[in-house]
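ARCHIVE CARD
Drawer: 12
Card no.: 0347
Subject: one protein chain, sequence and derived structure
Cross-reference: see card 0346
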Amino acid sequence: MNAADVMTHSVITVTPDTSVVELAKLLVEKKVSAVPVVDGSGALVGIVTKGDLLRRKELASERRHHPIAAFLMSDLALEQEYIRSHGSKASDIMQRHVITATPTTPLSEIVDLFERHRVKRVPVVENGKLVGIVSRVDLVRALAAIKAAAAPAHVSDRKIRRQLIAELSRQRWSKYHGNNVTVCDGVVHFWGLLSTPAEFDALRVAAERIPGVRGVCDHTVTPPTLVA
């Protein structure tokens, strides 16, 4: 799946000249945590989040530095802080470096962006124009919309074992490439010595995803050094 498959198309936006007060009201009324900032041509020029509204003169919450810390800060850093806490327009407080995606960006890459840059949403841009936005909620909705696969017809134990071994052989953590795995009447049995506390759960998850598996039995041995 790509960004275009899950993104919200009707994005709430503001302009660089939108006042901070109007912006705050919009976040509250629309129940959103951020709004992209676009210019007259629809090009993305920034984004404002709730976090950008926390350090404000009106709230008496602007950042205050110890005199020594302030002395060590550059004039540029102090000026930027002043603008963000006292500025009256979106252009004063918006984040100008915006992490973006395109409609064809795979969801795996978008999740990487979420984690790497610690953001909760990624605007989607095409030909320089904002066309949508993908948030964590959009990904959760996509997951919730997936229909459960229909129960398969009878699958032979041999086929289950073959598919399971193929899956395990692709996993770097797995030592069960055909060893200590048996299948009887759709139930997978794991035997042998575990290497980590999470190994059996990983084996169980791998088995439960194989069509036709009816259950998993644990005959593994956990070394005393791995027992909490």
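Annotation on reverse: Residues 157-169 form the longest helix (13 residues). The mean pLDDT is 88.
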